[in-house]
Amino acid sequence: MHPGTGGEAEHERQAQVTAHSRPSLRAVLACALFIGLTIFTLGRAHAAPHASMVVDARSGEILYARNHDTRLHPASLTKMMTLYVVFQAIEHGEITLDTMVTISRNAAAEPPSKLGLRSGQRIALRYLIRAAAVRSANDAATALGEAISGSEEAFTTRMTQTARAMGMSNTTFRNAHGLTTSGHLSTARDMTTLGRQLLFDYPQYYNLFSRRSADAGMAQVPNTNRRFLDAYRGADGIKTGYTSAAGFNMVGSAERNGVRIITTVFGGASTAARNAQVAELMDMGFSRAPARAATRPPATPSYSAPSAGVAMAQAGSDNQGAGRTIRLQTAVARSPRPMGRPTAEPAPEMLMALQSGISDALSVVADAATVEVVPVDTELAALAPEVLGIVPVARPDLEAAEVAQIQDGAQVQVAAVAAGAAEPTAVAEAAPQAVRATPAAAAADLDLARAAGFRVANPADVAALNAVQESPAAAAPDSPALNDQIILTSSAPVALSVAPPPRPAYVQAVAAADQAPTATQVVARMSTSDARLWGVHLGGHPNRHEAERTLIQTSLSESAALEGGIRRIQQRAGKFDAEFAGLTQDQADLACRRIQARNRTCITIAP
């Protein structure tokens, strides 16, 4: 055999084999096409059921509904309730935005979409909130639930209880993220109710749902709803969701000219188809909603304090209970007392000094004040240096009421002295008086004293007085007539004169400074920088409702900077100006810096 012949025969054999094999390839292609068509047909036959609802967010009026009470898989719309419960926990003091949460193995193992959290990692609660709201991260949602309630199971129980309190009677939660789980179901009506509740109950957090991206601590995460937010005018939220069992879901919200519409769609065929359907329903809602409608906020669901298993982040555990810690405080026990309005009162330091000075004055007068008994008779007043400049004493025969009257008169004068009187003052008293005097002093002008109504209280003292008058030199040096005091009494009206007590040191210093000659007169006034006379202006609004909402949102988001501030709405030139008054200058400056950092209007109002 020649080589060329053999080669041709081999070539012919290979050609025959190839020709016989072609029908097999066609069969394979046909089979593959059939299988693909079968899968597509089955997929269409088992597509997620469709449901939708449109409401006027202001009044809650239903503008359109279809299958809105059919229980379906909510997918990541679940995270709206996860975030609502987290906001509720923050509001009631269970946890804070800055709480560091330790990620458990359970949270880290959640399937995508996820932030990429690692077991044992510590991250601030605020970043988990952003990741769950903007990126729809499943691991972040589970970590939030464990941080609030200690376990995902306990947290989902609380989610369902909160749903019942809102009136979401057809919703049951089994996880915090929304992945398909047996019994984890909701309806278009219930999710619309939840979206409206988020809008009204936590407006300070609502802006999360309109952010195109957010800083989640580990990375800058994009919004899963950014296509609809960019494409539909006035859209500002709320949440999307997808699983194969649920289809493409969305609760969307948009506002135009003061009218807000909330639309819910379950079971979209794709992201584009769902967005188009939501836009169509939104347009229908805006066309049907009245231009003006009364705003009727939904009732805030009752808050029930969680059980003792309320959790915070805690490191050092690698089981499902990681991040569990018992909190003793579950709600704010006492709200701060509102601060007083600005007044022209002296500084607190000055008031304290005055109170201290008054106390000192009362103490000095009570213990050692000199009270002079001066009769009204002008002639007898000449005896004051020798006879009457003496501390009065109570007579045994004085009635208690008379003694109280004398003491009351002294107290009046004490108050006058404490209030700043520089000289003694006198008040006439009609009660009987008693004074002590030495026999020598009394005997000098005893006749004049008797003429004024004074008499010797003890008859035994009369002889001593007479002996002194007749022969002072003859009296014995140790005679009681010369050394003992005798008591003179009078029922005539007298005047009580109270000598002012020593002034406190700070008063003496001020008096000395006032008397010192000065070349320049210095006029001082209290600084207004620390007085609560400042305020902030948050811009004008078309109606009072918008102004009130701005004030509430700002008050909640900047509660520290605006502490003690007074909300007020001023109507000027057809606009409603939202303002905070009653702030210090530092408070007003800080509040405006923080508000302006959020790209919002804020102007400081000076006194």
Automatic annotation (TrEMBL):
Domain Peptidase S11 D-alanyl-D-alanine carboxypeptidase A N-terminal: 49-268
Active-site residues, record numbering mapped to chain: 76 (acyl-ester intermediate), 79 (proton acceptor), 136
GO BP of this protein: cell wall organization; peptidoglycan biosynthetic process; proteolysis; regulation of cell shape
A molecular function GO annotation: serine-type D-Ala-D-Ala carboxypeptidase activity
Keywords, in A-Z order: Carboxypeptidase, Cell shape, Cell wall biogenesis/degradation, Hydrolase, Peptidoglycan synthesis, Protease, Signal
Positions of substrate binding: 239
Keyword Signal (UniProt): yes
Transmembrane segments: none
Highest taxon of the lineage: Bacteria
InterPro entries in alphabetical order: Beta-lactam/transpept-like, Peptidase_S11, Peptidase_S11_N
Pfam families: Peptidase_S11
Family indicated by similarity: Belongs to the peptidase S11 family.
Protein name: D-alanyl-D-alanine carboxypeptidase
Species: Roseicitreum antarcticum
Phylogenetic classification of the source organism: Bacteria, Pseudomonadati, Pseudomonadota, Alphaproteobacteria, Rhodobacterales
